[in-house]
Every structure is written in C-alpha cells, then in structure tokens.
Q: What sequence folds into this?
C-alpha cells in the first residue's frame, strides 16, 4: 500500500512538474507573442491605442504620440477626451460594438489632437476576449485620412467648377451672338439718323443695354476661363495704384491701405481682366463694410515652395501674391464653400448678380494662378491671389485713336448664324467693302478657292457646324499662304482662338462688336505689309 501511495505521489509530482513546465512554456510563448505584437505596434505608422472595458488607456504607440500629441505618461489609466461633439453618434456605435465583443474596420470619424486641431480618421478596432469569451479590452487603430479627404474635396470641387464653367461658357457664347444681332442693327440705324431724330436717344439706350449684357457675359466667360484677351507683362503695382485711387474716390467711407513690394516681378496677364478681378474684390469688400472700415491691399514676390497647405499643388516657378483684406462682416464656412459659384450671392435682390467672385475665380485660373479665401464671421475676410511672374518687363499701355475707318476691297464673311450674317454684311458694306458670304467652314473654302484673287480679308467665325473656323483657316491658308483673316467669336481669345492666332491668323474680335470696333480691326490687318 505504501509502495502504491509512493508511486502515486511520485506520479502526481511528475505530472505537477510537467504542468509547471507546460505552464512556464505557455507563459513564455505568451510573453514572446505579446512582445512580437508590441514590436509590430511600436513600428506601425498608424496611431494605435488600447483600452480596458472601462475606457481607460492601457497602451498607446509612438505614432499616436507623434500625431495626436499625448504621451503614455499623460494618458495611461485615464480616458481620452478627444471626440468632437458632432462625431459622438458613430463613436457611440463603436463603443456598443466593442461592448458586444465585435471587431470592425474603416469607420470614418474625426478626433481632436492635444492642441485641439481636428483630424479626419478611419478607425479599425480589434476586441480581445478572455478564456471564457468575455470582452476584456480593445485595440483601436486610427489612420489619419485628413490629406486624403482634402484631395477628394479638391477633386469634387474641380469637377463641379469645370462642369459649371462649361455650361457658363456655352451660355455666354450663345448670348453674345444674340447681342451681336441687336448691336449690329442699332449701329446701322444710328448711321442713318442724327441726334435730333426722335429715336436717337432710345437707340443709344439700347446700345448701352447691349454693353451691359456684354459685360455680364464677360463675367461668365471669365468664370469659364474663356475670357482672357491679350497676355502681356503687367506691372501689378501700377494696376493696384490705379484701381485703389478710383475705389477711394467712389467709397470715401472706406480707408484703403497699400503695402506694395518695391521689387515686384511683372506678371503674365491681361491687364483688363486682372483689373476686373481686383475691382470685384474691392466691391465685395465694400459690401461687407456698409458702415465703413479698412481695406488693405498688399503685393509681394513668392515662389511655389512658399505656397503650402492649399487645396492645390502649384506649378513650379515664381509668383506674385496679391492680398486683399477687409475688416467687414466676414463669412461662415458654408458661405465660403460657395462664393466662387456663379449666381451665388448673399446680397438682397437687385444688389448683385453673383458673378463677381465667380468671374474672378475663372480669370485667375485662366491665367495659371490660384485664389484662396480665409474668413470668420465677424472677423473680416482675406483673399490671396497667386499669379505667375513674367520674365519680361512690363510695358506702358498705349491708347488707341478714335474714329470710324472707311475701307475698300472684298471681304469673305463666314458665320453660321443668319442674323449675324445679315447685320455684319450691312456693317461691312456701310464701311465700303464688297461682301461674299459663307455659312460654314466647308462653304468658306469653296468660296475662297473661287475668289482668292479678289478676297482681301476673311472674317471668320470659330464655332460652326460641318467645319469650324480653325480647320477652315488651315485649309484656306494652304490655298493661299498670304491669306489675311480676322477671327470672330462669342467666346474670347483664350483656348482655340489663341492656337489659331499662333498659326498665323491676323487678329481677333469678340462679339458683340460695334461698327467702330470692326472698322479698326480690319484697318489694322489690311494696313499690315
């Protein structure tokens, strides 16, 4: 019996020893596993934090400290207060899932950093259980997607602006053709009457309304980035001085301050278009300061390397920064997100078209530049415009002479709009020209081929069915390399017109134009040798 008990005891001791060894081996394996996972978490670029079931922090990795700012000493054993109020709904849902022992991934939310900066994050959670399957804690990985969200927002905004710009440009083109018909007929009637005629003043008023309509379409074309006319080196400081002088005289309740860099680079720009941008910003500022205030206009040189933290990546090179600051009412984020949309306005009915800032946006983009806005309700607004610098010196503007220019010779008039053909033919004939007609590019080629020795100039529309103005010009130039041609369009010179001009076309005129405008353009081209 004693031998049996001794044997059993020895067996039990052996089993106990084996269990002890097994337990030690298991504990060692667990420690190695924990160490391995800790090493992985420590090296992870994504912030990771572990909680017990009470929500207290039991671990956080270096990436969490680097991105969110808190150290382990500050958080271990405590709860983190870093959920923005508006992000509690999805956060509560995550807490409920953890309490139920569920794991999940890719839930988008936002979190504060230690400095109270808000980051967009994608959160994945692994819940860990004890041997009985009861949740005892959770590991949260927070991937910073702030940059990705910024790029997504940039793409959405660019797509929206491009679509609206295409629509705006098409509307402006068609509207300019309509205005051309009205303007041409008014010009013809004014030629036949003098200032004593009972209808003279009415016709002048119609002409003035046509000009107002053309100004509206120029805003639309500016937004559509089809409103740039002639790009030359421009002295932005001189332009700012002139605009501020005019603005100061019209808005005496606003004090204008100028901080202009002495060594400012010239910019590559159309002077009239940039004047329009600056004037729109000044008017916008004055509307925000009805009781008066301060308007600060600054210029300075910069480079693409200094343009950081924006919704775009600027092209490499030198830039000129134009800053316009007002001390007015400011804007909330919702308004700021829409101010560059055409027809969006916060002004009451009759006080604005909603095209000023939209056209400013398009003009700046059309010049290869960038425009930003910063504002806070009750704290004023700051616009920053970055325009590419020019390597050439700016030249002084030269005023053109006045007067109606008579002419002689044969003009081939090409346009698909019947009303424009009629009115332009009469205008040309009133100037003294013989006129041949073509209604599209193919017909223009045939008419030109038959009459090339007689045609002194081709007035050529750009957008036509069957064959556009660009292809028609190229074919006619093959027939006669010395052809003289004037492009005419409801669009502006930007884009296709510029390309045609670079291929040798002699000039451009935008509809609607007056008889004076047309006579001067034709005179310039025919006088060239």
A:
């Amino acid at each position: 019996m004693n031998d049996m008990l001794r044997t059993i005891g020895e067996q039990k001791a052996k089993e106990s020893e084996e269990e002890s060894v097994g337990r030690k081996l298991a504990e060692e394996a667990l420690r190695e596993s924990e160490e391995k996972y800790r090493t992985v978490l420590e090296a992870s670029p994504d912030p990771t934090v572990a909680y017990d079931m009470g929500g207290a922090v039991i671990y956080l990795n270096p990436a969490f400290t680097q991105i969110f700012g808190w150290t382990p000493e500050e958080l271990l054993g405590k709860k983190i207060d870093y959920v923005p109020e508006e992000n509690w709904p999805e956060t509560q849902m995550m807490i409920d899932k953890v309490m139920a022992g569920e794991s999940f991934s890719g839930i988008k939310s936002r979190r504060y950093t230690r400095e109270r900066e808000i980051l967009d994050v994608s959160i994945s959670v692994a819940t860990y259980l004890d041997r009985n399957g009861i949740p005892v804690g959770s590991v949260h990985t927070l991937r910073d997607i702030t940059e990705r969200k910024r790029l997504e927002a940039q793409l959405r905004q660019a797509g929206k602006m491009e679509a609206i710009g295409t629509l705006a440009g098409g509307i402006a083109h068609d509207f300019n053709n309509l205005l051309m018909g009205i303007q041409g007929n008014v010009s013809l009637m004014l030629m036949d009457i003098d200032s004593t005629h009972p209808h003279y003043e009415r016709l002048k008023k119609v002409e003035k309304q046509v000009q107002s309509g053309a100004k509206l379409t120029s805003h639309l074309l500016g937004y559509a980035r089809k409103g740039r006319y002639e790009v030359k080196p421009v002295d932005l400081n001189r332009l700012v001085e002139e605009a501020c002088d005019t603005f100061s005289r019209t808005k005496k309740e606003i004090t204008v301050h100028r901080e202009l860099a002495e060594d400012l680079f010239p910019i590559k720009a159309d002077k009239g278009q940039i004047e329009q941008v600056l004037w729109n910003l000044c008017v916008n500022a004055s509307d925000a300061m009805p009781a008066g205030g301060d308007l600060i206009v600054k210029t300075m040189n910069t480079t693409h390397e200094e343009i950081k933290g924006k919704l775009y990546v600027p092209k490499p090179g030198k830039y000129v920064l134009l800053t316009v600051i007002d001390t007015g009412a400011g804007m909330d984020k919702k308004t700021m997100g829409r101010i560059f949309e055409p027809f969006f306005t916060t002004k009451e009915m009759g006080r604005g078209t909603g095209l000023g800032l939209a056209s400013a946006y398009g003009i700046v983009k059309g010049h290869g530049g960038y425009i930003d806005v910063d504002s806070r309700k009750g704290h004023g607004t700051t616009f920053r415009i970055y325009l590419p610098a020019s390597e050439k010196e700016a030249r002084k503007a030269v005023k053109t002479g006045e007067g109606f220019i008579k002419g002689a010779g044969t003009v081939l008039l090409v346009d698909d709009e019947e009303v424009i053909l009629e009115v332009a033919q009469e205008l040309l004939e009133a100037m003294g020209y013989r006129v041949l007609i073509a209604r599209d590019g193919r017909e223009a080629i045939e008419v030109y081929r038959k009459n090339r020795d007689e045609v002194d100039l081709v007035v050529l529309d750009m957008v036509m069915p069957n064959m556009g103005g660009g292809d028609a010009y190229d074919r006619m130039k093959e027939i006669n390399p010395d052809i003289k041609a004037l492009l005419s369009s409801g669009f502006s010179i930007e884009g296709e017109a510029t390309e045609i001009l670079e291929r040798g076309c002699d000039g451009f005129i935008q509809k609607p134009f007056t008889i004076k405008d047309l006579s001067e353009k034709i005179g310039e081209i025919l006088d060239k040798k």
